[in-house]
């Protein structure tokens, strides 16, 4: 064993991508095991590795962790990215949950029928610009700090930069009315660990394509 966290998922973003982001932002190297067939997935279930018969699976500190939220909470706590007290942790949790709601729309987009894609893009834009991004624009403006919580880099900042870049892939000008978020994006993208993760050849996965969608359906749909 190398001691590095081992991530088991498909070779694509999905629900594992925020885990990759968080580990990378913390400066933690990890190994990946990619599922390519339904047989591999069924073997994990048969072997009792997946508590709820679901991936992501992260093997870390002698544990076989499932459930994305639990995995992310553990990593954030382990690497001091989860605030200094309960109040800060509550804020981080609220921000993360909000971002997760927005990212759920991004997550499901590749699986939508072609005839609904334009409508779904409009929905993502509407939610991002009217519900989610205004919250973070206001937070950053009101406390005048570089980060969302306590002027210290946290899990919430990692989730937000991931979401900003994911939405921009579909709506390039989405930040045009959000100067605080534009500055935030620049700051985060220049942090050494995140800058490294954004370079070609990093473990960051590209936007889902048809091949990824087909692999997901082949492995998980009976």
Automatic annotation (TrEMBL):
It is an enzyme of class 2 (transferase). PROSITE patterns: GST_CTER (PS50405), GST_NTER (PS50404). GO terms for molecular function: glutathione transferase activity. Residues 85-209 form the GST C-terminal domain. Its EC number is 2.5.1.18. SUPFAM superfamilies: GST C-terminal domain-like, Thioredoxin-like. It holds the Pfam family GST_C_3. It comes from the Eukaryota. InterPro entries: Glutathione-S-Trfase_C-like, Glutathione-S-Trfase_C_sf, Glutathione_S-Trfase, Glutathione_S-Trfase_N, GST_alpha, GST_C, GST_superfamily, Thioredoxin-like_sf. Residues 3-83 form the GST N-terminal domain. Keywords: Transferase. GO terms for biological process: glutathione metabolic process. CDD domains: GST_C_Alpha. Belongs to the GST superfamily. Alpha family. PANTHER family: GLUTATHIONE S-TRANSFERASE (PTHR11571), GLUTATHIONE TRANSFERASE (PTHR11571:SF230). This is glutathione transferase. It comes from Nycticryphes semicollaris. The lineage of its organism: Eukaryota, Metazoa, Chordata, Craniata, Vertebrata.
């Amino acid at each position: 064993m190398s001691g590095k966290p081992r991530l088991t998922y498909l070779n694509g973003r999905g629900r594992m991508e925020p885990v990759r982001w968080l580990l990378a932002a913390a400066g933690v190297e990890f190994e990946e095991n990619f599922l390519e067939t339904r047989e591999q997935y069924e073997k994990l279930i048969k072997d009792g590795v997946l508590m709820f018969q679901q991936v992501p699976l992260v093997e870390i500190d002698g544990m076989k962790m499932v459930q994305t939220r639990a995995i992310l909470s553990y990593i954030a706590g382990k690497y001091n990215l989860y605030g200094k007290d309960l109040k800060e942790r509550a804020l981080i949790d609220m921000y993360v949950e909000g971002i997760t709601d927005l990212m759920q729309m991004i997550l499901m987009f590749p699986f939508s029928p072609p005839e609904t894609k334009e409508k779904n893009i409009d929905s993502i834009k509407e939610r991002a610009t009217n519900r989610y991004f205004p919250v973070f624009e206001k937070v950053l403006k009101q406390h005048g700090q570089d980060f969302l919580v306590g002027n210290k880099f946290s899990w919430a900042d990692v989730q937000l930069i991931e979401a900003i870049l994911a939405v921009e892939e579909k709506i390039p000008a989405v930040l045009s009315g959000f100067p605080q978020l534009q500055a935030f994006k620049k700051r985060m993208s220049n942090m050494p660990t995140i800058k490294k993760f954004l370079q070609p050849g990093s473990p960051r996965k590209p936007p889902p394509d048809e091949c990824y969608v087909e692999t997901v359906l082949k492995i998980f749909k009976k």
